[in-house]
Amino acid sequence: MSTPGDAQNRDEVQDGEESQVEDVQASAAQSGSEDQSGDDAKSRGDAKSHGAAVGLQGDKITIRGGIPLVGRIELKGAKNLVTKAMVAALLGESPSVLKDVPNISDVRIVRGLLGVHGVKITDGEEPGDLILDPANVESAHFADIDAHAGSSRIPILFCGPLLHRLGEAFIPDLGGCRIGDRPIDYHLEVLRKFGAVVEKQPSGIRMSAPNGLKGAKVELPYPSVGATEQVLLTAVRAEGITELKGAAIEPEIMDLINILQKMGAIITVDTDRVIRIEGVDRLEGYQHRALFDRNEAASWAAAALATEGDIFVGGARQPEMVTFLNVFRKVGGAFDIHDDGIRFYHPGGELKPVIIETDVHPGFMTDWQQPLVIALTKAHGVSIVHETVYEQRFGFVDALVEMGATIQIHKECLGGQACRFGQRNFNHSAVITGPTKLHGADIEVPDLRGGFSHLIAALSADGTSTVSNVGIISRGYENFITKLQLLGADFDLEG
Ligand code: EPU
Question: Whose CA is nearest to atom 25 of ligand 1?
Fold first, then answer.
């Protein structure tokens, strides 16, 4: 492994964000939005800001609102599964084939990081097919790894597979949406339990496994999606049995388990968030069609409701969206379930206020609240959103208030049970009073889901809005500009 040194261009790389134009023209660039997570609690204070996407061409969209979005769009695989499935390919002794991979910048980042570790990645026959060949996995040069610093949270999941393959790993500083502190203390604790030696360095984290990795008993303090994936990706090849208590059980995690089982892993999901993994000596490649992106489906559903439109979301399925569908119906939205997707529409009449508490699965996902808040500004009465997963996920509402919404943010746990943020001075409850008419404004995208909610706000507002920093949205929404065109939105891209 190359020795970490100072990267001259670190800040440029971290601050870079790809141009929105790529969404239309599919030019590839590294995305480097948003903040870095900390190491243990100690490094939280070190977190650098990578939020600004400066001086980018085509990073602005001017939207003339008030037109219902109507039409059909198609989903591909879930951002929050596909990127982890790509990492899982590192564990196989033969090539893997992943289907329905969306063309989003998070995928390109993971592709780049796998590439610098010797994984050969080629496009398959069908659009969205990726073939990942890990035959020549090798340690990457520090500069190549460091070029990915601040770009995504996925690199932390490379640890287990790289430790199994190479006995060592170096992980650059992480990125991800600026929606809370987002420490990685659970991840590091998990890896230490498996026997990894973790060494924090100025530019990232170095790990080694001098005695190999051994199965462990792990109990997570909170059902973290990423830490559960960390356990899975490490335990499948560790010697002996791993028992994970307090696991996250999101559908994307279940689909990762499907993939690992196809590779030869032995994983049992018990009741009460307990997962048992029997380590095996060898895993093969997999062939898998990724689970659809239910966060994207919920986002377009929210757009249909707020614009009084009618959108058929091809590829969306009911079982993974039951909780969302209940809330969508309570607000006054309508949906029809079909074999090939779900039609979401505004059936006419008044929208109704709701009380939502975000939670881990099977609760109402945190990623759904931001887009749905726009419809709540149009509901007749007072809605409450209590955010219990991330402590800072209401940064997007300032712009909505500027557009005419009535939203107050509170530190108290409103509308539900007390959560772990209640006594900690975090602005994590929103009170939305409606109906309000939104009017056009110049607004700036703060994070991925907040960015999509800004798009919905502008699409449903009276008059013209300019939304800047929209490049962030292409981290997780494939071809969203093309989809907006298909749905009849009236807009211009600038730059
Ligand atoms: N947490 C810790 N320590 C850790 C790990 C997590 O305190 O070591 C805390 C976090 O700070 C947070 C909570 O646990 O308060 C939950 O975090 P989790 O680990 O579950 O989230 P994640 O794995 O970082 C994934 C998705 C998020 C999604 C969450 C929750 C990916 C790449 N990201 O994040 O997606 O909101 O799970 O479902 O899979 C998005 O798509 O916009 C997005 C943010």
Answer: 225
| Residue of minimum CA distance from atom 32 in ligand 1 | 80
**Global pTM value:** 0.90
82-97: pLDDT as tens digits: 999 999 999 999 999 9
CA of 11 to the centre of ligand 1 (A): 24
* Cis amide prior to 362 (ω within 30 degrees): yes
**Nearest residue by C-alpha to atom 5 in ligand 1:** 184
Using DSSP bridges, classify how beta strands 168-172 and 96-99 pair: parallel, antiparallel or unpaired: unpaired
Q: Are 437 and 403 in contact (CB under 8 A)?
A: no
What's the rounded Cα separation, in Å, for the pair 444 and 468? Answer: 5
**Which runs of E-coded beta strand occur in 366-475?**
381-386, 406-410, 429-434, 442-444, 464-468
- Domains in the chain and their CATH numbers? 10-28+79-289 (3.65.10.10), 58-75+293-494 (3.65.10.10)
Q: What is the pLDDT of residues 406-439, one digit of tens each?
A: 999 999 999 878 999 987 889 999 999 999 999 9
Q: Which atom of ligand 1 is nearest to the CA of 152?
A: 32
